Structures are given as structure tokens and as C-alpha cells.
């Protein structure tokens, strides 16, 4: 049990036993609605939201679990700005090092590069990438990488963060490695160009989070 992870209050079964109903903590809204609203967010709001997301995620990871579907709609809030991570339908147990896992997880805009590249293994860092995308979206009030499809998503990421070296793509699908190697290399752009309103501390943290992958 953790204050930043949605709690299960009761488990109810239908009379015929075919359906199960989960009764969870009551929350008022979610991060997607906050981002889409005209509500002004102060630096204190941003710090508190990010702190709670990372605290909840640290707890989930400490249990050897990777969420795999972190996105604004799965980050719930109440009127006191208290936050809880929810929707563990795609969560899986993962080893401390690396584990072979299914690829089609996470809404595309928040999907880590190694998942887009069909890497055979990945780590808990894929959740950190998702939190970084949510954090940037809070700052911008629009998605950081709003790709139309997986290829366009990867193109948006490399346009900002640069093209990875081929020797950094261990475990990636060979066809995708070949496709990447045939494209012009893109140098990284200053992250400030994507989040011009970020504080120096916020920008530094965001930079470290996207480098976590």
C-alpha cells in the first residue's frame, strides 16, 4: 500500500460469478483533464505532481513491477492535488536487470524508444520515460511527442534528442537497425527548444529522465 498508488477497497463478484468489480479510492479527476483545462499551474503544482508520480513509481518498481502504461489519463488526482497512479492492467513483474516482455504497451505518445524499436528486452526505465513525457506535457500543455504512428513517433523523438549510434541498439529488431542506419543522422537539439518555460532545475531533471533510457 502506498499513498501515491490507487488503493483497492473491495472486490465484488456478480451473482453469477462471471464478473468482478473493483472498488478503489475515490478520485476527482486525472492529469489528462488538468492538462486540457485552462487551470493555471504554478511551479509548486508541477513539483508536487512530479514528486508524487516518482514516489508512486519508486514504490511500484521496488515491488519488482513495471507499469508499462503510464499516461496522463492513468494519473488520478483529487481536489487537494493528491495523486495516485492507476490502471495496472498491463503491469508485469520484471527482473532487476532486463526481461523479455511484449512490445505493444503504453499509448504511443508515452512509449519509450526501445519499445518503439521492438527491443527484445527493456527495463523499468521505460516507466521513467513515460513520466518524463507527462512532465513535459504539463509544462507545454500539449504532448511532447504526438506521433501519428510508431515510425512518426520515433522520428519526432530523434528530431529532438538526436539519432542513436548503431552500436547503442543492442537487442533491437535487425530490420529497424538497418532502416535507422539508412537515414540521415540527426544531432540533438537543446531540450529548452521543446519546453521553453521550464525552470533550470526542471529542465535538468527532464534531461536526465530522457537519458535514463
Automatic annotation (TrEMBL):
Pfam families: Pkinase. One of its GO terms (molecular function) is ATP binding. Keywords: ATP-binding, Kinase, Nucleotide-binding, Serine/threonine-protein kinase, Transferase. InterPro entries: Kinase-like_dom_sf, MAPK, Prot_kinase_dom, Ser/Thr_kinase_AS. Residues 1-213 form the Protein kinase domain. PROSITE patterns: PROTEIN_KINASE_DOM, PROTEIN_KINASE_ST. It comes from the Eukaryota. This is Protein kinase domain-containing protein. It comes from Calcidiscus leptoporus.
